[in-house]
Amino acid sequence: MDILKKLTEEFPIREDRAQNIIQLIDEGNTIPFIARYRKEMTGSCDDQVLREFNDRLTYLRNLEQRKAEVAKSITEQEKMTEEIQKALDAAVTLTEVEDIYRPYKQKKKTRASVAIERGLQPLADFILAQDPNADVKAEAEKYIDEDKGVPTTAAALAGAKDIIAEIVSDDANVRKKLRNLFMRNGEIATKLVNTDKEDSKTYEMYADYSEPVAEIKSHRVLAVNRGEKEGFLKVKLLLNDEIAKRIAGASYLKNGGYSTELVKEAVDDGYDRLIFPSIEREIRAMLTESASEQAIKMFEINLKPLLMQPPVKDKVTLGLDPAYRTGCKIAVVDGTGKVLDKTVVYPTPPQNKVEEAKKKLKELINKYDVDVISIGNGTASKESEIFVADLLKELEKEVNYMVVSEAGASVYSASPLAAEEFPDFDVSERSAVSIARRLQDPLAELIKIDPKSIGVGQYQHDMDKKRLDSVLAGVLEDCVNSVGVDLNTASVSLLKYVAGLNAGIAKNIVSYREEHGRFYSRKEILKVPKLGEKAFTQCAGFLRITDGENILDNTAVHPESYKAAEKLLQLFGYSEEDVKARNISDLPEKVKKYGEEKAAKEVGLDVPTLKDIVAEIVKPGRDIRDALPKPQLRKDIMDINDLMAGMELTGTVRNVVDFGVFVDIGVHQDGLVHISEITDKYIRHPSEVLKVGQTVTVWVKDVDVKKNRIGLTMKQKKAANK
């Protein structure tokens, strides 16, 4: 297989650029570095495309390696033929390769292998020939041998049929045809068991359920799998056995009288005993893999915008971790995230010390000039939100609040990292700090938490851990590097995701910083133990130094381009002082007027890099998140009983799933906008239109107070007709 040709067929990338990407990857360059600093070589491919390209490259290389291993094994067995080699060369999936290898693979003892040991292979071949004039029983008598475990003619025929059954089962073409039949016409069927158990109600919709394999949605595959794993569901694959057996026997059955009857019996047995169970497992595994990939994709789609939510900068923030019996934990942090104060209040049941809680919070708000309150959305969140909304009405200064997801806060609070950061705080106090900080800088705070615990996916705990961790690490890496990291303040948690760095080097950077003081230039990090030139090349452009020796150190301009950047400034009559003073706002227009290609050539750059440098030096220290819509801060709260059909509301997308999106509309319960209610245009998936953190206008479609369900629509006309 020509891997390069295959990749250019699957990706909209020119062959020369695809070759460049492969070379860059093979040289050990990171995806963020390639995406940001090698645009000319890749045609400006973004991180996501490059990661998908890399995944596919790895798969195809593994495929070719496996083909070579299989070819070598078959050749060593002296069974390689031109037909087998052609089939291997044509195989485009690992499944196809394993099907080809199946007859030649060393197996555990089977009924067929026992029969072969007893010398019955020639009899099986005789029967398979299906000569209508052959006396099969007379032939079988020749193989009777008590010592070999073949005492009768019937035993000889049974052993021969076992061999034929396995031949049919191992036939790659038969398996391919049946696998396709299963995918086209098969059904997944479930039955509810253990109905006496309390949690069985979770799976009521699957009590007597079936759905075509070709149509079943990913989330239902995962739900069925979980129900089966928990012992609530029995799951099986349904197929028309007669049709399947006809397909299995099509290339084996002739018109050979009694011998053909024996072959048919062997084919039927091979299907029932070997093929069906095997392909059922394969189909279930394929569905699970596909569903898992979709779930992981959804996690990736949701996680990225969550991490990239604009920070609420330079605001003194009061974090409130809601609870009932143990009270609401409070932490006040300044604009940099430094903890100023902490306490506990009891405005919720059973204590209900509302006035006492109000007094304490008013004192903290006035003492530290609190700007915003961040409320966790866990237990007692609704009661806490009502309390805060009521409190704000009594304040002289304007203070807003926002309910933030506290998913993972408890995981972080109990972690060694949190213990190291706040050794004198108990677990709940650390959680309140985390809730405050995730409003101030979602990326810096959420990066400390295992992505699986952040709460923006479905069935993440059922996924292949290695695959999920790999994808999520890629998301974290892309987010961290697209924003950039302050070298003098960044935690180990942030630094370890910078391109070219790892946890060990990140710790060394922090240790060096603590021992020697702040960094004044990017090049200083070359003094950090185990950080060599290669790592420096990969990471330098993503590290920021404010008030450093070189203003370019506070931009995404890579040190390799500093001289070119300086030439660019000189070309248009600017100095480094102009950059510091931000007196070069007209540079983009001057470059455009001069000619981007001409300017790039004169300073020794390619055009994409020139554009990036211009954008960076115009606004040193810029945060790309600042250009995104700000999070919605609230002053008041609504109750589900206040909602009426047709009511127009503004909300924030909290989660995107296959069947729709969940929107926070200021009621404790998020409302659901079903995929059919998002737009009048056809969309395959909600993520085509919406993402986590996006502010949207919705209309109430229906409300079920008893079930605590809110149906929303984004179609104004439909809502108005209600």
Describe the protein's architecture and organization.
The chain has 722 residues and is α/β, with parallel strands linked by helices. Among the domains are: 3-88, Arc Repressor Mutant, subunit A; 317-456, YqgF/RNase H-like domain (Nucleotidyltransferase, domain 5, 2-Layer Sandwich), CATH 3.30.420; 503-627, DNA polymerase, domain 1 (Orthogonal Bundle), CATH 1.10.150; 640-720, OB fold (Dihydrolipoamide Acetyltransferase, E2P) (Beta Barrel), CATH 2.40.50.140. The chain has 31 helices and 15 strands. The strands form four sheets. The chain has a five-stranded mixed beta sheet with strand order 6-5-4-7-8, sandwiched between helices. Strands 11-12-13-15-14 form a five-stranded mixed barrel. A hairpin with a 4-residue loop joins strand 14 (695-704) and strand 15. Helix 26 crosses helix 29 (596-603).
Q: Which outline best applies?
A: globular
Determine the structural class based on helices, strands and strand pairing: alpha/beta
CATH superfamily of the domain at 317-456: YqgF/RNase H-like domain
Low-confidence parts lasting 5 or more residues at pLDDT below 50? none
Number of helices: 31
